[in-house]
Design brief:
The chain is about 5% helix and about 60% strand.
Length: about 625
């Protein structure tokens, strides 16, 4: 916290200096605010400050400047208390030794307690209940909204620790816009991206394709991925429009094993498909949508073997699917009032086997759930009250009530206060219920209760925006593996209580100079791997003419790599930088470097990350 106070002091001092030396650039000064519009907390577009649950926004410009193929490295820098494990320069993989573990406030996405959505549709491997990190592509995202708190009232199971909603690209300008990004660098890494957007009258469309490959910084750590995205929309009238999209992501990853025990043939081939169809309406007093979605996956995995061992005789194969619909409608009954009612239904399942005759782990299991919810907002002058309830009905567990309540208060023109109490839950996944020796069909849903208090403050004509969040979370009925009669079994045996602090600072120092930073502190009474106690990021962006400079530093403190027996923690600092030059209107050149201090560090025990890496490339706007 002393570092944060020091940063605020420096920013205030710099503001005083700049205010004494205003130049011509101030004549075009913008009014910088944190009144971005979000949909994640309410289904309908609402100013972020009016949603009681704290929400982080990562916009298209930030995503583009990262030069990343995958979204997760970008989100980890810009969202407090969000951490993603890695094992190499690119690619996360699945199965044993996989990276891409998403942890938010001590909730593990690998266990399915943090929900990934694309345009509000849940996206995860239903057999195991966890996200597939290699399927979330940066070029497909217009904006990402991260709810840092239970979001089960709107999204149901798996959102007990939060929700990451990826809002897909849309054609914003008339005409055709074609762009291509080509880059290459350390360890034979190559990244190519092609995006085309088109808008003409009532019709719009976006299509993109991405290819990425690397040899990896260790033996047998190569990665290759190919992905595509198409989104088409048509406005039948001013009040009605239809949108459809399809996403395909195929990856091939290698697990090199730990540094002390290298692995051979640890390979995974993953195919993920996602599709959606949305019919939206928008009138003066009411708006809503009917959304249909279907996701599927096909995984072929060689779990590999160690030196002196025997190659696996069979691959592990699994398929999964999830289809459903969510329908909602909001009504403004009178001034300052909004009531949103919705209905969700989904069906999911899959199969898994190694030897199709003798090693069948899941044989076309199928489950379903339906839910209805009501969410109300009422403005009373500067005070906005929020309350909602969800009734969930699962095939195995019957009915469950999920409440949420809170308020937001505009204390002054530049000061907002927010408070929320949110209940979350997670339904046991198919693996926990039916697969392997620890399976237990008598498991009950997990539950959580989140308390959040947020203060946001604008300073210096809103050039500096600061936000502070205090949170406390309790979890109950957590599924853990315990020994029963000398054998492992999944049981609802766990409880936890997490609390912490989250701070965000965004300072527009000059029209072409900006600072973005965030800090989070997390106290866990029950330690889990992949969630650091302290996490800090500061990034500076400077645009002098045709040049653009970006530099950032990330400080990780007490990241637990192992928690059993003797806990092992790691702390490190990473520095990155990017320089770009707009040579012509149609041609931009850039070079970037990561871990410029060449630090030794790990985010997974035994998997050392690469030292300094460099990439260079070009952006073509045709």
């Amino acid at each position: 916290m002393k570092k944060i106070v020091s940063i605020i002091f420096i920013l205030c001092l710099s503001q005083a200096i700049f205010s004494q030396n205003k130049n011509d650039s101030t004549s075009t000064q913008k009014n910088y605010r944190l009144d971005e519009v979000v949909v994640t907390g309410s289904r309908i577009p609402v100013q972020r400050e009016m949603i009681p649950v704290p929400i982080s926004i990562v916009n298209r410009e930030t995503i583009e400047q990262s030069e990343e193929t995958n979204l997760l490295p970008v989100l980890m820098k810009h969202v407090p208390n969000l951490f993603v494990t890695s094992r190499g320069i690119a690619g996360y993989g699945v199965s044993g030794g996989a990276a891409g573990g998403i942890n938010l406030r001590g909730f593990s996405g690998g266990a399915g307690r943090v929900l990934i959505l694309i345009d509000g549709h849940p996206q995860y491997a239903t057999i195991y209940g966890h996200p597939v990190a290699d399927a979330y592509i940066a070029s497909e995202a217009q904006q990402v909204e991260v709810s840092r708190g239970a979001a089960s009232i709107l999204y149901g199971s798996n959102a007990m620790g939060g929700a990451i909603n990826i809002i897909t690209r849309k054609a914003l300008e008339d005409g055709n816009r074609l762009s291509a990004r080509l880059m290459g660098g350390s360890y034979g890494t190559q990244r190519y991206s092609l995006t085309d957007s088109y808008r003409n009258g009532q019709f719009s469309g976006v299509a993109s394709a991405n290819y990425e490959r690397t040899d990896g910084h260790r033996t047998n750590s190569g990665f290759e991925s190919l992905s595509g995205f198409t989104k088409l929309g048509y406005e039948f009238a001013e009040e009605w429009k239809v949108t459809g999209n399809v996403n395909i992501a195929k990856s091939h990853s290698n697990n090199p094993g730990t540094a002390s025990r290298p692995m051979l043939d640890g390979k995974a081939n993953v195919l993920r498909g996602m599709s959606g169809l949305s019919v939206e309406n928008k009138y003066d007093k009411t708006s809503g949508a009917a959304n249909f979605f279907y996701n599927w996956g096909d995984h072929k995995i060689n779990d590999g073997y160690f030196a002196g061992g025997t190659p696996r005789p069979y691959l592990f194969k699994s398929t999964d699917y999830m289809g459903g619909v969510n329908i909602y409608q909001s009504v403004n009954l009178f001034q300052g009032n909004t009531i949103t009612g919705g209905f969700d239904a989904k069906i999911y399942g899959g199969n898994a086997y190694r030897d199709p005759q003798t090693e069948i782990y899941a044989d076309h299991i199928k489950l379903h759930e339906v839910a209805g919810y009501l969410f109300a907002q009422q403005a009373l002058g500067p005070l906005m009250l929020n309350a909602g309830i969800r009734l969930e009905n699962h095939k195995l567990y019957g009915r469950k009530w999920i409440p949420q309540g809170g308020f937001s208060l505009k204390a002054t023109e530049q000061t907002h206060l927010k408070f929320s109490v949110s209940k979350g839950f997670r339904t046991p996944n198919l693996r926990e219920l039916y697969m392997y020796a620890s399976a237990n069909e008598d498991l009950l849903p997990e539950s959580s209760l989140s308390y959040d208090f947020t203060v946001s403050q604008g300073l210096f004509d809103n050039r500096l925006m600061a936000e502070l969040t205090l949170f406390y979370i309790k979890g109950d009925n957590i599924v853990e593996v315990v020994q029963v009669g000398g054998h492992p079994q999944n049981r609802n045996a766990g409880k936890f209580a997490n609390k912490g602090v989250e701070v965000s600072l965004n300072y527009q120092i000059l029209n072409n100079l900006a600072l973005h930073s965030n800090y989070s502190y997390l106290h866990m009474d029950k330690l889990i791997t992949g969630s650091p106690r302290n996490k800090f990021y500061a990034g500076l962006t400077y645009h002098p003419g045709k040049f653009s400079f970006n530099a950032g530093a990330q400080v990780i403190g007490k990241l637990y790599l192992a928690t059993e027996n003797t806990p092992q923690a790691s702390s490190y600092t990473l520095v990155d930088a990017r320089v770009s030059y707009q040579a012509y209107k149609w041609l931009g050149l850039f070079v970037k470097g990561d871990n410029l201090l060449a630090r030794r560090y790990e985010t997974m025990l035994g998997y050392p990350m690469p030292r300094a890496t460099f990439m260079a490339g070009a952006l073509l706007n045709l």
